[in-house]
């Protein structure tokens, strides 16, 4: 199972640990560990491969590999499916299978190393930034951290509030992009505004130069609010 320190180790180190594990399991086999630069790797180009080991979750991926192989004029691979072991003690928020994701959830709130003492940094409030693409789990992680007592600041919510009538960016944005971005009720039509800026780097920078400092200021105000509450 992977825990956080292992997730951020260099690829070369992780590959070396994997090779050591595999050779401990069966040293008589020859292992060729390759980095994957795309979802398929050598599975769709190597004519010598004969079998692909998949799980219940990755079976469809194996079928996609075979489709690609046929397109490349290669024979299909035999798909050998292994069953996933179930975790009889998984919680409602965790996966049913035995999973490193569940382990990392259980580690939430556990200090993996002591906090670094830095005289320039105040002890409170201690601010954690959650970033990531769509569907990466930011909302779920924020909810779990909130249950542990964290004061949660949702930048997406602030991003909507900053445009609202009376919000700090409302008048500057209307002044910069014109009344045609307004709905009949005076609110900013984000689709109309988006059409003006997306695909136009100059206009997008013009918008972000207005909005981002305002959101940053709102975040700082929320941080002060959290500090006042002793969070």
TrEMBL record:
Any one GO MF annotation of this record: ATP binding
CDD domains in the record: DPCK
One BP annotation, GO: coenzyme A biosynthetic process
InterPro entries: Depp_CoAkinase (IPR001977), P-loop_NTPase (IPR027417), Rossmann-like_a/b/a_fold (IPR014729)
Keywords: ATP-binding, Nucleotide-binding
PANTHER family (UniProt xref): BIFUNCTIONAL COENZYME A SYNTHASE-RELATED, DEPHOSPHO-COA KINASE-RELATED
Name of the protein: COASY synthase
Gene for this chain: Coasy
